[in-house]
Specification:
4-stranded antiparallel β-sheet, Aspartate Aminotransferase, domain 2, Aspartate Aminotransferase, domain 1, alpha/beta, 8 helices, 40% helix, single chain
């Protein structure tokens, strides 16, 4: 089994999943794709990825904390999980831990309807409208993200980590003179909510020598963010850089 992310939640890198899947299948392996961070940022088609399994979490696309592993029903038929003897042996029931959370499932359905309404010009069935909504969101997010990256590059006190040609609208960075946790707290006091640490991307931050002293601060752009919010973040980083420089003197 080859497991690969479709989008890094730390630095945004988007690997060529289809090429990886092709190589894995040529060697007789199955492919499991972590789509948690990629699915919210554009249309996703399981068949085109070449994946046998794809994981997505609804909380990343405006839904509740409920995840799904998606696969062709025929793929599930060949797998036999450890399970309670009296529980159903049908697919997909034999993979479930018990009765699902119906309130959470209702929230998932509402979130899908929300995505289907992001492009007011979209027509067709719900699947087509979801694809159109996510495509519109992707184009919007990319414009905002370009604005964010350009602003970070203009600040000499900012160090950006990762520079993949293909990436989700996510960036990790540090500000000179500030610890990641301290910077996130200062931004929070200014009304800007960003996370700091390694976001479970242990291997990347360990390899980069960043994990021991706090990882980095992460900013992601979603369809509900605005240009004003991006500008506020950039302005606050500039203010904090000058504040620390003044304190250093």
């Amino acid at each position: 089994l080859v497991a690969v992310t479709a989008g890094s939640n730390a630095i945004g890198t988007v690997p060529d999943v289809a090429a990886i899947a092709k190589s894995a299948h040529a060697a007789g392996a199955l492919v499991c794709v972590d789509g948690v961070h990629s699915v919210p940022h554009g249309p996703t088609d399981l068949a085109s990825t070449g994946a046998d399994f794809l994981v997505t979490s609804a909380y990343k696309w405006s839904g509740p904390h409920l995840a799904a592993m998606v696969a062709d029903p025929a793929r599930w038929e060949s797998l036999r999980p450890a399970k309670l003897v009296p529980s159903s042996d049908a697919v997909p029931d034999r993979f479930e831990a018990g009765t699902p959370s119906f309130p959470l499932l209702a929230g998932v359905a509402a979130a899908v309807d929300h995505l289907a309404g992001l492009d007011p010009t979209a027509t067709g069935d719900r699947r087509e409208r979801v694809r159109a909504g996510l495509a519109a969101a992707q184009a919007y997010e990319e414009r905002l993200f370009d604005r964010l990256l350009a602003g970070l590059a203009d600040n000499d006190a900012v160090t950006v980590y990762g520079a993949a040609a293909r990436r989700c609208p996510t960036v990790s960075f540090r500000l000179a003179g500030w610890s990641p946790a301290g910077l996130a707290a200062a931004l929070g006091e200014a009304g800007l909510c960003l996370s700091a640490g390694d976001y479970y991307a242990y291997e990347y931050f360990q390899a980069m020598g960043l994990r021991a002293d706090g990882g980095a601060v992460r900013a992601s752009v979603y369809h509900y963010n605005t240009a004003d919010e991006v500008d506020r973040l950039l302005a606050e980083l500039d203010t904090l850089a000058r504040r620390r420089e003044t304190m250093g003197r």
